[in-house]
Specification:
The structure is a homodimer.
Chain A lengths: L3 E6 L3 H12 L1 H8 L3 E7 L16 E2 L2 H6 L5 E4 L7 H10 L3 E4 L2 H18 L3 E2 L11 H7 L5 E7 L2 H13 L3 H10 L8 H4 L2 H15 L9 E2 L7 H9 L2 E14 L2 E15 L11 E8 L3 E8 L3 H21 L21 E2 L1 E7 L5 H11 L4 E7 L6 E6 L2 E2 H12 L4 E10 L5
Parallel strand pairs in A: 1-2, 1-4, 2-3, 4-5, 5-6, 8-10, 10-18
Antiparallel strand pairs in A: 7-9, 7-11, 9-10, 11-12, 13-17, 14-16, 14-18, 15-16
Helix pairs in contact in A: 1-12, 4-5, 5-10, 7-8, 13-14
Cofactor (chains A, B): a metal cation
Family (chains A, B): Belongs to the homoserine dehydrogenase family.
Function (chains A, B): Catalyzes the conversion of L-aspartate-beta-semialdehyde (L-Asa) to L-homoserine (L-Hse), the third step in the biosynthesis of threonine and methionine from aspartate.
Chain lengths: 433, 433
């Protein structure tokens, strides 16, 4: 029985766990694949770097391009990350007839179609479960389990760093800066936390989720993005006052269009969700993806969203499928973008806002504020008035309107004499009372 | 492009939704499969029964055997349920070269191997995602996503009826009989609720989950089973007092064996789990499956566990995969029982007990009770003493011991003079303080 030969590109936190599992689970992998899986090379930047795993003698190489060009490699695992050289290496691997498993969300979100076309042309598999929400099986359920259903909405907590920070702000009352510092001390946030806290990482994952859920091409550029660095302790308290919690959500939705096919709206931003929502109980650095579909109803997938070992589990799950396909001389379903839905700009996306306003406590204030909403075409769901005199505060939650209308309403409020300050503006998701 | 021809066996709550979705999603199914999917027959018991869907003229038949024997049927969907005639029909369909999708947990748990062997021999697919936890994708993740990992434990709330009843008992303080009646009034429980409340339904699902998780053959007979009809309001209150909640759990675990391969323990019984456990927040008739694996860590899958439309979503997801395989001239991975693990009897399975005891309030009582535990080789984790005088109660939570040791301890306690009554005995899962 011929062994399937695997090359691993990258031996950092994920790659080293992949190498470890390939060794430790060798017997099980052989039984599950139907043939032995043999590691034939590991490409690294520096041969002498410290590693979490002992790579067998002679397998390490700094020549990644040479490794993927070898004609005896059946399967390539790319866990380098970033756009280049990862893209060139994956394309070269496919051209040389290898099947590819990758965890590279940035590359897939930026230039997925190029990779999918290359896989299609080569007749090989390109699998990437590990790219979204680490070990949580979510891409395969979207792509396969729900293939007979119509997904209408995906709401995900897909970035562990920001969830840890927001959870800390919620439980301790800390501000953003303090919570970020704690996340950095504990290793949940990087020294330069931009990719996480500004939502770039979540936006890449949102693009991948939306593409699969709606059978359309959505890239990172199509995703509206706001991070959590502007979320204040006052926002978190305001959420708490209405029985909600602030989460950074990746939201992918079908949006009905008059006289046309449903469009797709994809966005990443902090939002208030009710504490009774299943996503509200996702604590610390955990991830979860909540899916709504016509026939299945509401599903949730929960687990560790990052980390070397969980991510390696997802990579190896893909590897087993790809290896089985290889042995059977077939390939899995390729990407499907047949629905070809339009992506809606954020301004046209329908959302709901929570707005807290410091106002002068005098007669007619509520009427004036209500008029400002009405003039912008936004209807109000609830108003709560708190305090009196100098501390008077109005908290308004709107009904659904376009994000442009809601944003114009806030601008309008800011310009009103009776409004001393708009103290908190945040979108709202889920059913609030 | 040749259409793939589908026969549906059964047109009850699930079958009628399958027929509806096949029609409503026809365009999407064609795009996702790569060929049209055409309904060619629906087998029913009576032609004139009331149905939730209008079946196209001429497709209804009472001759199920004739339908699966037709040589122009590519795919057969079995949603009749029960052992016969479902088994004969599935075997006949496979022999005739059709691929099969079924939701039949009872049949799979009783006689799965016969079906798997028939599928293997015919070179056809047999898929059954809908058999466990309705719309929740759990079998595919176990079988495929976690194929490169080592699953150590599966804890599932896989029966909606009993979860509804226990949730009601927890939130309202009702007893079992009252909560069951409400479940029956609301349509969550059947007139004869035995299969649900005595754990038979959950045990069938546990057998299926254990087989997939541990790559071994586990049948319904291998599953230790206790239902919830003996759970009292006092048990639920006792759980509440220690920050826990009572759930009917399907538990599938690897159990280390000295000097031998890990064995498998599979059981269904009510258990107290801490309210902080992700499964504790599964309310009403929802289902959830919690999976622990070596590399991925803790995952949870949550959603509606029953109902015509959710179950039909799972059936159609399988149908798309099976149809794609058919077009590609291949089949998915068959069942794998290579690990061939032994199934441990309940007595040898390691568990933990919660025991509440009415005792005489006199000196030496605690020492006597502690001695009873020690003499049976069980060590105590926590003891809580409540009340005084006639109302004195001891609540003991043990450390792990074999179920036989724990059961003997309870018997021993019942025979002690100072013990007036053992008021609550229940197994405990998850990390309690």
């Amino acid at each position: 029985m011929r062994a399937l030969r695997v090359a691993v590109l990258g031996c950092g936190s994920v790659g080293s766990q992949v190498v470890r599992l390939l060794d430790e689970q060798a017997g099980d992998l052989t039984a599950r694949v139907g043939a032995p899986v043999e590691l034939v090379g590991v490409a690294v930047r520096r041969l002498d770097a410290a590693r979490d795993v002992e790579v067998p003698e002679g397998l390490l190489t700094t020549d990644a391009a040479g490794l993927v060009a070898r004609d005896d490699v059946d399967l390539v695992i790319e866990v380098i990350g970033g756009i280049e050289p990862a893209r060139s290496l994956i394309l070269s691997a496919l051209e040389n007839g290898a099947s590819v498993v990758t965890a590279n969300k940035a590359l897939l979100a930026e230039d997925g179609p190029t990779l999918f076309e290359a896989a299609e042309k080569a007749g090989r598999d390109l699998y990437y479960e590990a790219a979204v929400a680490g070990a949580i099986p979510i891409l395969r359920p979207l792509r396969e389990s729900l293939a007979g259903d119509r997904v209408t909405r995906v709401l995900g907590i897909v970035n562990g760093t920001t969830n840890f920070i927001l959870d800390k702000m919620d439980t301790s009352g800390a501000g953003f800066a303090e919570a970020l510092e704690e996340a950095q001390d504990l290793g949940y946030a990087e020294a330069d936390p931009t990719a996480d806290v500004e939502g770039f990482d979540a936006a890449a994952k949102a693009a991948i989720l939306a593409s699969l859920a709606f059978h359309s091409r959505v890239t990172a550029n199509d995703v509206y993005r706001e991070g959590i660095s502007e979320v204040t302790a006052a926002d978190v308290q305001s959420a708490r006052d209405m029985g909600s919690v602030v989460k950074l959500l990746a939201i992918c939705e079908l949006m009905p269009q008059a006289g046309a096919d449903d469009a797709v709206a994809v966005r990443v931003h902090p939002a208030m969700i009710p504490r009774s929502h299943p996503l509200a109980s996702v604590r610390e650095a955990y991830n979860a993806v909540f899916v709504e579909s016509e026939a299945a109803g509401q599903l949730m997938f929960y687990g560790p969203g990052a980390g070397g070992s969980p991510t390696a589990s997802a990579v190896l799950g893909d590897l087993v499928t790809v290896a089985r396909n290889r042995l059977a001389g077939t390939r899995g379903a390729g990407e499907s973008a047949y629905a070809d839905r339009a992506v809606l700009p954020m301004g046209e996306t329908r959302t709901r806002y929570h707005v807290a306003i410091d106002v002068d406590d005098r007669a007619g204030v509520l009427a004036a504020v209500a008029t400002a909403f009405a003039e912008n075409g936004v209807s109000i769901s609830t108003v709560r008035q708190e305090g009196r005199g100098l501390d008077a505060e109005l908290v308004v939650v709107s009904h659904e309107a376009t994000d442009a209308q809601l944003s114009a309403t806030v601008q309008h409020l800011r310009e009103m004499d009776i409004v001393r300050e708009v103290t908190s503006v945040m979108r709202v998701e889920g059913d609030h009372e």
